[in-house]
Design brief:
- This protein folds into 2 domains: 17-71 and 375-410, Urease, subunit C, domain 1, CATH 2.30.40; 73-367, TIM Barrel (Alpha-Beta Barrel), CATH 3.20.20.
- Helix content is 32%, strand content 23%.
- The protein has 11 helices and 19 strands.
- It has helices at residues 90-96, 99-115, 132-141, 182-195, 221-233, 245-254, 267-276, 284-293, 305-320, 339-348, 353-367, and strands spanning 17-26, 31-33, 35-40, 43-49, 60-71, 73-78, 118-123, 149-152, 157-158, 178-179, 201-204, 206-208, 215-217, 238-242, 258-261, 279-281, 384-388, 401-406, 409-410.
- The strands form 5 sheets. Strands 1, 2, 3, 4, 5, 17, 18 and 19 form an 8-stranded mixed β-sheet that branches. The protein has a 4-stranded parallel β-sheet with strand order 11-14-15-16. It has a 3-stranded parallel β-sheet with strand order 6-7-8.
- α10 crosses α11.
- The structure holds zinc ion.
- The site of zinc ion (ZN) has 4 residues, from loops.
- Zinc ion (ZN) binds at residues 77, 79, 124, 329.
Length: 412
């Protein structure tokens, strides 16, 4: 039997100190062999050469020989409510799977995402699962389930008639996003989503209006301007799905934070994005996965037109100097396989491993305006991972995650 000591003052919470001694530290910008990191509770207290960062009394020391310590990765574009389309087509996920089933899956997705070293994810739309991402985020924050810190977009906005699923015109079916149009409709929908927990407003600036046609613009310039104005006034950024030059141009002029996909981007529109400070999240892994689901045998067949075009537009994007966010549209492919985007960018799209690694950490943090993470710096969140080898030489090293700390707590 135990009893509590009678005391007028509750004991002060104990300070937890942890000293990490890896082979090298990648601080979000540069590799530093022989550095160490000291963590106090959920924050980084010190970082520097081992001789200068020593263990204070009561600190636990963790030696990590052969490992590189780096900031927890920031996934730029996920859908935790989706699972790979070669398992179940998108239409069927939206129409046939219950929200309970989708949320149950999402809890498993969140766990595998965190285990893969992703400590923050921008989750860009529930695709028909309403506000389930808000509850999922709360469950993670309350420690009920493991998962990354989430920025959620909730339902996303589409122009009436532009999205899916589309069955016969005689059947009305729930849509994968919220339809909104015109001044009153748009203001109301943006406020509704924010009121229900959206950290980000996502808008589809273009889409295929019919099954067998290319994407075309959806919202007018005035509508997009209004979406951004309404969201920004509540302190939320707007991100735009867009792949046509006109959709991208309108979204850029409206003042979105990022453009997602951008497959049909031209030199002109990338230049405009660069001028306006709009970043591109190219999601190359999504196109790569979808092409393979459609039968493309990578390494055997000639490259499909879609991939060839994507490589062309990425060349133009790179030449323009537009900032690149790293995000794969994971959910289209398996959660936990987030590193696929980084590998493709480095191996097939001409980025150096260092560029990719900066993008995946400090770059995404800057673009998404998360000044408390993405770097290993005194005072920032102790969201850290340790991987085998040197990911600045080969980003494939990011698959060898041996340790994940989220807010200073070992979660793997
Ligand atoms: Zn997406």
């Amino acid at each position: 039997m135990s009893s509590f000591p009678a005391s007028a003052h509750p004991p002060a919470p104990a300070t937890v100190l942890l000293l990490l001694r890896p082979a090298a530290v990648f601080d979000g910008e540069t590799m530093h062999p022989g550095w160490a990191v000291l963590i106090e509770n959920d924050r980084i207290r010190a970082v520097g050469p081992v001789a200068q960062v020593t263990a204070p009394a009561g600190a636990r020391t963790l030696d990590l020989p052969g490992l590189t310590l780096l900031p927890g990765l920031i996934e730029g574009h996920s859908h935790l409510m989706l699972h790979p389309y070669n398992e179940t087509p998108w239409n069927d996920q939206v129409l046939l799977e219950s929200e309970a089933l989708r949320v149950a899956r999402a809890t498993a997705h969140a766990r595998s995402t965190l285990a893969a070293g992703i400590t923050t994810a921008r989750d860009l739309g529930t695709e028909g699962a309403g506000y389930a991402d808000v509850g999922l985020k709360q469950a993670i924050e309350q420690g009920i389930i493991p998962g990354p810190r989430l920025l959620v977009a909730t339902r996303a906005l589409v122009a009436t008639g532009s999205y899916g699923p589309k069955l016969s015109v005689d059947v009305e079916v729930p849509q994968g996003a919220q339809e909104a149009d015109g001044v009153d409709g748009i203001i109301r929908a943006v406020r509704e989503q924010i009121g229900n927990g959206a950290d980000i407003i996502k808008v589809y600036a273009d889409y295929r209006w019919g099954a067998n046609e290319p994407s075309r613009p959806t919202f007018t310039q005035d509508e997009l301007n209004l979406i951004v104005k309404t969201a920004n006034s509540a302190g939320r950024p707007v991100v735009a799905h867009a792949s046509t030059p006109e959709g991208m141009r309108r979204a850029t002029l409206a003042g979105v934070q990022t453009i997602e996909h951008g497959d049909g981007g031209t030199a002109e529109v990338f230049k405009l994005m660069k001028q306006r400070g709009v970043a591109l999240c190219p999601t190359v892994a999504a196109g790569d996965a979808i092409s393979q689901y459609r039968g493309y045998r990578k390494g055997q067949d000639p490259e499909p037109e879609r991939i060839r075009q994507k490589k062309e537009s990425m060349k133009l994007a790179r030449q323009s100097g537009v900032a690149l966010a790293v995000g794969g549209d994971v959910g289209v492919f398996t959660h936990g396989d987030n590193v696929r985007e980084a590998e493709l960018l480095a191996r097939e799209y001409g980025l150096t491993p260092l560029e990719v690694l900066r993008g995946f950490t400090s770059g995404n943090a800057r673009i998404f305006q998360l000044p408390d993470r993405g770097r290993i710096q005194t005072g920032l969140l102790a969201d850290l991972i340790a991987v085998t080898g040197d990911p600045t030489q080969d980003v494939g090293a990011l698959r060898q995650v041996k340790l994940v700390l989220k807010g200073g707590v070992e979660v793997k």
